[in-house]
Amino acid sequence: MTEVRDGVDGGDDEALWAAVMAHALPSVRLTHSPADGSACGPACGPACGPACGSVCGSVCGSVCGEGLRGTRLGGVALGDERFVWPRTDGGRALSLIVQLDCDEVNEALGLDALPAGMLLAFFYDAVEMGGWENDPSDPQWWRVVMVDAGTAVPVAAPEGAATFPAVACAGRRVLTIPDESEAVVQPLWERQPAGMDALYGRAEAPMHRVLGWPEFIQDPARPDDGDWVLLLQVDSDSVTGWMWGDVGRLYYWIRRQDLASGEFGRVRGIVLCH
After folding, report:
1. Residues in CB range of 273: below 8 A, 6 or more apart
2. What digits encode the pLDDT tens for the residues 116-137?
3. Are 238 and 133 contacting, i.e. CB atoms less than 8 angstroms apart?
4. CA distance 53 to 64
5. CA–CA distance, 171 with 210 (Å, rounded to integer)
6. C-alpha neighbours within 13 Å on the C-beta side of residue 149
7. Considering the entire predicted model, what is its pTM?
8. What is the pLDDT of residues 198-218, one digit of tens each?
9. 73 contacts: CB under 8 Å, gap ≥ 6
10. Which neighbouring-strand residues pair with 31?
């Protein structure tokens, strides 16, 4: 596990704990929120508008009304007048996987890491599940679209796009430490394997994460042509019906300078599974 709560200490070996925590990065863990009791159709409210019944359909779930603009898994995509549904190079429609409310993430994180007042919609080719290799063609399988939360409206998914139930998410700040296969902690594992093993436990799945260190399933896999950081990690999830290969995860990567400037058009991704 690469996740710890703020304020947790490392037990008996304080020096080893300090060496690991020197590399710690803040992150937001996304967990399922209880259903709010709202429903699709006429009860959806002003955020959906008259088109809600036809746009939401069976994928709206319990997230309707103003909740459409919040952080959630799946559900209905929100767009503005410039929004164009993302597709692969061959024209296949990508699927909405996650929507992040940047203000909610920033509040949970305690930092202005994402653009204020905006929504980030994360798309992936959930039909054919491309993007298993780290090569220049990968970007076609992944897309992140930023829209203004104040003006975003529901957009019907095009024919052929897989859709998933909307599941509202709550975010809480955690500290993440490097996966045991990361180069920055390899010397510590070589010198004190027993002590390091005691520090790394197991976290309850699904492990959806914004920013911070990734929780790799196999060896580290990130783009190797620049300074890339984790933007979003999406786990397999029985509630949404996601199974990325053999209980795998999706990893969305962004260059550090693009994150700082709010440029989300060059995000890359990769899938890892058991």
Report:
1. 217, 244, 245, 246, 247, 248, 249
2. 999 999 999 998 887 776 555 5
3. no
4. 11
5. 9
6. 19
7. 0.86
8. 777 666 779 999 999 998 887
9. 30, 32, 97, 98, 164, 166, 167, 169, 208, 234, 237, 239, 240
10. 170
**How many angstroms separate the CA atoms of 188 and 210, rounded?**
26
Query: At residue 61, what is the residue type?
Result: G
Q: How far apart are CA 144 and CA 35, in angstroms?
A: 26
Distance CA 99, CA 26 (A): 20
Q: What is the mean pLDDT of the chain?
A: 82
Helices (H), 175-218: 186-191, 193-199
DSSP 8-state code for residue 144: E
| Helix (H), strand (E) at residue 15 | helix 14-21
246 vs 9: CA distance, rounded Å: 34
Helices (H), the chain: 14-21, 52-56, 102-109, 186-191, 193-199, 256-261
